[in-house]
Amino acid sequence: MDPIAFRIGPLTVRWYGILISTALAIGTYLAYKEAERQQIHPDHVLNIVIVAAPLAFVGARIYYVLFRWSEYYRFHPAEIPAIWHGGLAIHGALIFGILAGYFVVRRSKLDFWQMADIVAPSIILGQAIGRWGNFFNQEAYGYPTDLPWAMYIAGAYRHPTFLYESIWDFAVFLFLLWFRRRDTTKRGEVFLSYIILYSVGRFLVEGFRTDSLMLGPLRMAQVISVVIVVAGIYVFWKRRTKAPLYNR
User: The pTM is what?
Assistant: First the structure.
């Protein structure tokens, strides 16, 4: 599979970039419309995207480079900015993006949990779309398998782990859309459901991958996923007793 979509003179356009740009555009539109529905000026969504999206890319790269530093990047420092070769870690993107979004929201004197609920479905949908960039880059695949849905990648038929995660993410997206409209849903619960459910899926899928970022003998994505699930459930439980309902 050719990772390059087309060339215009010296400009190379890759499928990964097209998919990420598409995911960002669709996600921004959905959050924009939801902000309007909740009677929040939608320009606040644009302000978040303008700040959080670039920092999310930076965070995704920094996270990946840090965990590959000793084995690769300290010997090839010129490769650090080469994101077109792959190497973006979603957990780094989420950490930087959420922190950036938090500061933008607080500066605008908005309710963080409400805004987080607005953008959460957009984030997980973006992840579902973006995972297909791994397909075109022939990366983020799993162990060899003889299952009927195996894909031929890197010289063998393997678990298409990017596909597993994409399907899971899209299912979470649909759940969040439904959950957000329930009369009993409280502020913050859509976002908390997102991070919990995504982390459950990521923990399971990560076990099939061959390129995990490691923390000693542990897969880093699984360690973080467990921490997020435990913390998310705790915060969800605490907020269930005191967080306000949405005004429908």
Answer: 0.92
